Amino acid sequence: MVITIIGSGNIAHHLGLGLFKAGHRILQVYSRNLNPAKELAKKLKARATDNLYTLQTTADLYLICVSDKAIEEVALQIDFEPELIAHTSGSISLSALSRFKNHGVFYPLQTFSKAREVPLSNVPFCIEANTPENKTRLNILAGTLSEKIYGLDSEQRKQCHLAAVFANNFVNHLYVLAQQLLEEKNIPFDILKPLILETAQKVQQLAPGEAQTGPAFRNDIQVIEAHIEQLKSDKLEKLYRFVTASITEVSKSKPSEGSRIK
Amino acid sequence: MVITIIGSGNIAHHLGLGLFKAGHRILQVYSRNLNPAKELAKKLKARATDNLYTLQTTADLYLICVSDKAIEEVALQIDFEPELIAHTSGSISLSALSRFKNHGVFYPLQTFSKAREVPLSNVPFCIEANTPENKTRLNILAGTLSEKIYGLDSEQRKQCHLAAVFANNFVNHLYVLAQQLLEEKNIPFDILKPLILETAQKVQQLAPGEAQTGPAFRNDIQVIEAHIEQLKSDKLEKLYRFVTASITEVSKSKPSEGSRIK
Q1: Are residues A50 and A173 in the same domain?
Q2: Is A171 inside a domain boundary?
Q3: Which residue of A has its CA nearest to B88?
């Protein structure tokens, strides 16, 4: 496919490189600022532009990789009928692109940052489009990057995005809080790394309900109370009590495996 | 070393097998109930007992692998002076074993369940003992299992255990909640697995603060409000608002990387 990338952030960077490596031709890279557009375009052997009105009209796909807020603004500045146009957002409806005849969504469910390369082959792509033909075109494109293609409607995709906030953003924030706790006693964060990895690996194999361990799951009041005593911040105490109550509530409805954190 | 294992649960199981494979001789396995003791003893070529008063007194180490609540009770029933005795708990002080001349702590910081084998070579062992000599003996023992040995006092170890509750128990609970959200819209949990793994892998390399992405980190009010609208449960809404506020608070004190969940 001949593809024009609209955006130059994390998603543009990772998808652009992935598509380029998969053998697609990247025609242009657009960004509000010319420098990041040029930087990415160079890697993708493409041309850079900071003006949507100068986009070449011959690409097979215009892939919008800008922030959620900017999607509408960008769409309004595309003044021709593209062969196919798709955005890459988890939380924006398909209908945001409904002014175009052929439109869709191409949402990679993964956390990307420039500091880390992520192989796309394992990334789930959530595909939606306004016609079965357009969906097929996006499915085929996703298939050149990944083995995991999901056809989800806008409502399902938004729910995935919400679940991803719990499983990624909130989880990562718990790592931040754990690190702060360790720092209080001069313990290196490294000590938690194997536990963090095993926690994530466990649910690749077991359902998360089966993988649950710890004092809240065992309803070990003594340890819970000692922990609350130990927490010096009201915020952390509130969070601890809240999540502990939620674990207890969920575990009551499940048979105990009797395992524990060690 | 010649080791007697006191307990037959997850930790007894994983440490027992690890020690046996590392070439140590397991003398006896104790459990309140004879059957689980026999089951584990068989795997470790050891003898089983359900009576602490019949323990052979010749082991080099008595390793207490029972639940936190039972440690004191077990210790009271050991009616001879063991060569060395240690418990394996994250939250119980060294002093719980102070009635013995030679005592210590041998705490593997990992989540264990019977359904999953965990290689001990990567597990951090937190070691404490009442004398430098006893600490050295436990360090050497840990070194036969793992490359990651940490000398931590009881207060530091308790803080590790607390941090581990955030990084493991609470994280796993977020996976449970994410799964429930997906189920509402008939989306398989599988779709989140690569994200979960990448989230954990990211902080092996980047500090968790640098790895943070998502609407709260970007202070993307529109997405945050849409998510809150989407959440049907008061509990989840409360948790969402709480963690979002906490992420915003922490991220304000850090330079933005501008990355986002996709």
Answers
A1: no
A2: yes
A3: A262
